[in-house]
Design a protein that fits this description.
- The structure is a single chain.
- By secondary structure, the chain is of the alpha+beta class.
- The protein has a single domain, classed as Aminopeptidase.
- Helix content is 31%, strand content 32%.
- Strands 5-4-3-2-1-9 form a six-stranded antiparallel sheet.
- Strand 7 and strand 8 form a beta hairpin.
- Helix 1 crosses helix 3 and helix 4 crosses helix 5.
Length: 181
């Protein structure tokens, strides 16, 4: 996969997070095809995925951050996505994570999101990062709680209800499980 020039690749003990690009379209569709995975984030056609990935590339260019493909460092297998997404309508930067079902329950979401938070609060200097979690998504709510997020408000994202969780830089424990390469 091609990488976006001048944007960091984050690494942890087990993971590599690289900026998503339009070259990831087929993989994005496959990731979101599983009904258990897309239950809260939705499925994508190839056209919808291509549009979403172009928007992610644009966000990397304009804001210097965006969503990343999460790959296993040992094998290079893409197992999910995690990163920062700017929501203009809320004027907020969200940390988001979605992983293939075969990789649930192994701590990958917490590990990847921790690296993203270190980067967001550190190198990017963000004061607050949110996480928008659909009602009933207990695993994502548990990841958010492990990372130190607290519920902030109820809201709507793409016409669906979400609980917006927030974490301020001062509340981040600074536990570095990742680095930038």
């Amino acid at each position: 996969m091609r990488e976006i020039a001048n944007h960091p690749v984050l690494t942890t003990e087990r993971l590599r997070l690289r900026p998503l690009t339009s070259a990831d379209t087929e993989w994005w569709v496959r990731l979101h095809a599983d009904p258990e995975v897309n239950r809260f984030v939705g499925a994508y056609t190839e056209e919808q995925a291509a549009d979403r990935l172009r928007a992610i590339e644009q966000q990397w260019t304009e804001r210097g951050h965006g969503l990343c493909a999460v790959e296993l460092r040992d094998t290079g297998e893409a197992i999910g996505r995690c990163g920062l997404n700017w929501w203009a309508q809320y004027q907020e930067t969200e940390a988001g994570w979605t992983f293939a079902r075969a990789h649930w329950g192994r701590g990958y979401a917490t590990e990847a999101a921790s690296a993203v938070l270190d980067w967001g609060f550190g190198a990017l200097g963000l004061a607050r990062i949110t996480a928008m979690i659909a009602p009933g998504n207990a695993p994502s709510a548990a990841v958010a709680a492990r990372l130190g997020f607290s519920p902030l408000r109820e809201d709507t994202l793409s016409g669906k209800p979400v609980t917006v969780h927030a974490l301020d830089r001062e509340g981040w424990n600074g536990t570095t499980v990742g680095s930038t390469a």
